[in-house]
Design goal:
There is one protein chain. The protein is mainly alpha-helical and 418 residues long. Helices cover 51% and strands 4% of the residues. Helix 7 packs parallel to helix 10. About 15% of the residues have low confidence.
Length: 418
């Protein structure tokens, strides 16, 4: 080839600068990095095919995001306590659009970095079936509860993730399946969402609706009605409710709120004392203490122990229950035995702790079984028949003998305690 031809060939090619070579290398790297990714559509200006620069091309709005099926947009959620978990492969974008909580967790500054396979996020604070109902709700799928336990756990999840509609679905199912056997399971921790018992209004009481967009207020309104229904069942059948094991799992405040209620329809105050003693023993074990009488007494405030109406017990019920437990002091036991046996000469100290013990029956309590043994005084009525007179005289003598035995018992106990 002649020298002239070489010069002409070189003149037809434009020399490449170092900047252009570096740009081409960057494009090659970008192509290798995203060769398996869905390629976005490009907007190419018309009549500008010449001198076309890829860096000046914009993506169509909404298509710059990665596809939902891409592994970098996925996350693995491990839900439940260790050893009993369910795992979910979730799209970050889809879940973040329905929940601000998940948006902060999956797309916020502290979110896990995208990896392939997807990263695992552990959620040990939520029950697995409750989380399954939460996902169904967020994906607009029907939610069908099968048990009170799952519905109660779903209510906790709805409160934490601020889903008022899911909370209302849970409350509706719980109200329909609420009875004496399930009320404590529903009642436990419900006051954290609806407030304490003093702020809960009876069913049917008009209240101001929450402000629009107030998710916490809407959930509190739904839970307030459920809490009122729980209290109504506990008041109507406390003998069944207080004997359940679930009572031992309540908080100290919940136990105090129930024990101090005047509307409990208790036929025997010993039922309440036995429940308080069981709860105190469980609390000692939770703290790693021996369930001694001293530790059980210290596990609950004094007003809770004094909320039991001891003077409404009969002598046998008191001696075999509160007195035998050792929770009450010797002075308290001696004083209460005297009150129960009718020794009215013993006065209640005005400024002492015993002044807080009430002998007024609770509202709705059947008084016939409580006052019958105190008010019946055989021998004062006229005897019309000799047979009846003899029977009543025998009964009167038996009661006098019991009274003498009670007096001796009081003296013996006083000497022992002293």
């Amino acid at each position: 080839m002649s020298q002239l031809q070489k010069m002409q060939g070189d003149s037809l090619q434009c020399p490449r600068t170092e900047l252009e070579r570096a740009r081409d290398k960057d494009k090659i790297r970008e192509g290798l990095r995203y060769r398996n990714h869905p390629r976005p559509r490009l907007i190419i200006p018309k009549n500008h095919c010449k001198d076309f620069d890829m860096s000046q091309v914009a993506l169509i709005p909404g298509e710059e995001k990665m596809s939902g099926s891409h592994p970098f947009d996925m996350v693995m959620l491990e839900v439940g306590i260790p050893g009993d978990t369910w795992r979910y492969r979730i799209e970050r974008q889809r879940l973040a659009q329905r929940s601000e909580w998940f948006r902060a967790m999956l797309l916020g500054p502290l979110s896990p970095a995208p990896t392939d396979p997807p990263p695992t996020v552990k959620l040990q604070h939520i029950e697995k079936r409750a989380f399954d109902h939460l996902l169904r709700y967020l994906h607009d799928e029907p939610v069908n509860f099968q048990s009170v336990t799952t519905a109660r756990a779903t209510l906790d999840a709805a409160h934490q993730y601020l889903c008022p509609e899911l909370a209302r679905l849970s409350v509706k199912f719980l109200e329909a399946n609420l009875d004496s056997s399930t009320v404590l399971e529903v009642y436990q921790g419900l006051g954290l969402y609806a407030g304490n018992l003093e702020t809960v209004k009876p069913p049917g009481t008009p209240t101001a609706p929450p402000a629009p967009g107030d998710d916490v207020g809407e959930i509190a309104e739904a839970c307030s009605g459920l809490l009122s229904a729980c209290i109504s069942i506990i008041d109507s059948d406390p003998a069944t409710v207080l004997c359940q094991e679930c009572f031992e799992d309540l908080s100290s405040k919940e136990v105090a709120d129930l024990a101090c209620r005047d509307s409990l329809r208790l036929a025997h105050e010993g039922t309440l004392f036995a429940a308080l003693e069981r709860w105190a023993a469980s609390e000692c074990r939770r703290r790693g203490l021996d369930p001694t009488a001293f530790n059980k007494r210290a596990s609950l405030p004094e007003e809770v122990w004094y909320s039991v109406r001891y003077p409404l017990m009969n002598d046998r019920e008191f001696i075999e229950g509160p007195m035998a437990s050792g929770i009450l002091t010797s002075e308290e036991s001696a004083f209460l035995v005297g009150r129960i046996l009718g020794h009215t000469e013993e006065k209640i100290p005005v400024n002492g702790p015993l002044s807080r013990i009430s002998s007024v029956p609770r509202a709705g309590t059947n008084l016939s079984g409580i006052t019958k043994w105190k008010t019946s005084k055989p021998g004062k009525k006229e005897r019309e028949e000799n047979k009846r007179n003899r029977r009543k005289e025998c009964a009167s003598q038996g009661q006098k003998a019991c009274a003498r035995i009670g007096d001796c018992l009081v003296r013996v106990l006083a000497c022992v305690f002293d």
